[in-house]
Amino acid sequence: MKLSEHSKQRMKQRTDYNHKQRVRLFADAIMYGKSPNDFKDNKELRDFLLSRKNCKVKLYKNYVFIYSKNSHRLYTMYKLPEKYIKE
Q: What is the DSSP string of 8-62?
């Protein structure tokens, strides 16, 4: 998996992590992140994640990571909207 220039910029803007920590976050999201099918008990969150067409989506540490299905490149990442976060 590779980081696109856009995703590098977005990770820098949307996290307080340094470069090494951002790369680690990206790698951990690939390995440990949850896919939409892991949220069968939360239909609203699952539908939100599945609304991203033609992409792979992973949720990790309350960040949404959107990957290309074919090129294995991270397009972007953003914080999960508050309404989907359960305490």
A: HHHHHHH----HHHHHHHHHHHHHHPBPGGGGTT-HHHHHHHHTSTTEEEEEETT
Residue 4: DSSP 8-state: -
Alpha carbons within 13 A on the beta-carbon side of 1: 20
Please indicate whether residue 65 or residue 72 has the higher confidence score (pLDDT).
65
For the chain, the residue count is 87
67 touches 53 (CB < 8 A): no
Interior CA angle at 72 toward 15 and 21, to 5°?
25
User: Is this model's pTM higher than 0.90 or not?
Assistant: no
CA distance 63 to 82: 11
CA distance 8 to 3: 6
